[in-house]
C-alpha cells in the first residue's frame, strides 16, 4: 500500500506591496498550526518517507516545521517549482510515478486550489473546504507509485487545525 498526504501550506501573511506572492511568509498562527498538524499526524502513526513541497516560501516554511516535528531530515526535503506554478493531475501522477517505491508514504505541501483539486481527482471524494494547513491522507492499493491512477485512492483521514482546537 502507498500513502500520500496532501497538505495545504499554513496560514500566511497578506500579500504586501513590493513583495511577490512566492515570498510570502507564515503568520504566527501558521507556524503554530503547522507544528500542531504535524504532531497530530505523527501521533496517528503517519510518517513521511519523502517530503515534497512547492518552492514558495510559505510552503517551504510549512514543510520545514513539519519535518522538524516528525523527525524528518530537513535537508532531504524536495522543493519542486511545478507545485507552485500549477499542474495537471497527469503531471502530478508522472512526478509520483518517478518516486522510489521504498517510500511508502509521501507528504506533499502545496497550494489551493491545486491541492484540493488533486485530492478530488485522486479519490472519489470532493474537497470543497480545504483550509490552510489541512491534510488529506490518501491510500492506494498499490506497491508502486507508477501504478497510482486518478480516482484510485481512498481518503483515510482528513484534518485541519480548527478541528484540533
TrEMBL record:
SMART domains: PGAM. InterPro entries: His_Pase_superF_clade-1, His_PPase_superfam. Signal peptide: none annotated. It comes from the Bacteria. SUPFAM superfamilies: Phosphoglycerate mutase-like (SSF53254). This is Phosphohistidine phosphatase.
